[in-house]
Automatic annotation (TrEMBL):
GO terms for cellular component: cytosol. GO terms for biological process: division septum assembly. This is Probable GTP-binding protein EngB. Necessary for normal cell division and for the maintenance of normal septation. Belongs to the TRAFAC class TrmE-Era-EngA-EngB-Septin-like GTPase superfamily. EngB GTPase family.
Length: 196
């Protein structure tokens, strides 16, 4: 798969509006500011691709990107706007949980967590949904360039151990869009899911 050819496809506000039923998709999720857009841009070598998801009016939508005609990257709205009004949060929960629970085309989930602040409340919630729905997870500990290499290894071990007690089916990697760390591993995992 050539991720450089990925194109913005469409945004949706409700999952029953999604008309594409063929092929498979991989969803990206994480707190806002976790580095989700940067990871999609790094993967696809396109500086602006995930900006679609950040334009006003689109931040609460499910944004679809097409890698090839039968394989899509889905950018789920970022979570954790602490000050967001309750209605906005409820809307977010509805659309994201609905997608994760009902979308049969979903092959795997990339969960992004800032390496300095992993496993926050809503990360656990997403992990819980993944367990209940048997969704395979790739965890990326993002912005790993922000801490020293030995600290990265320690943090990786800590998060790995915590996840082992919860999940059977997961992989965890260090990731940095700035330093281009983990991009190949992300690509390989997506290829694996696609070919599975
Ligand atoms: P999103 O809200 O999850 O989509 O996060 P963004 O991709 O927009 O990134 C949020 C902020 O973190 C921006 O200021 C980015 O420049 C910064 N950032 C993203 N990835 C990295 C990284 O790998 N290393 C560092 N040091 N900063 C990053």
């Amino acid at each position: 798969l050539n991720y450089k050819q990925t194109k913005f496809f469409k945004s949706y506000s409700k999952i029953h509006h999604i008309e594409i039923q063929d092929g498979f998709e991989i969803a990206f999720i994480g707190y806002s500011n976790s580095g989700k857009s940067s990871s999609i841009n790094s993967l696809t070598c396109q500086k602006k691709l995930a900006r679609f998801s950040k334009t006003p009016g689109r931040t609460q939508l499910i944004n679809f990107f097409e890698v090839v005609s039968d394989f899509r990257i889905v950018d789920l709205p970022g979570y954790g706007y602490a000050k967001a009004p309750i209605l906005v949060r409820e809307k977010w929960e509805k659309i994201v949980y609905n997608y994760l629970e009902k979308r049969e085309q979903l092959k795997g989930l990339v969960l992004l967590m800032d390496i300095r602040y992993p496993l926050k409340k809503l990360d656990y919630k997403i992990i819980d949904i993944a367990i209940r729905n048997n969704i395979s997870i790739l965890v990326l500990l993002t912005k790993c360039d922000k801490i020293k290499v030995h600290q990265q290894k320690i943090q990786l071990q800590i998060v790995y151990k915590k996840l082992c007690s919860l999940l059977d089916n997961f992989q965890i990697e260090l990731f940095s869009s700035t330093k281009k760390i983990g991009i190949k591993k992300l690509e390989l995992k997506l290829n694996y899911w696609y070919n599975q």
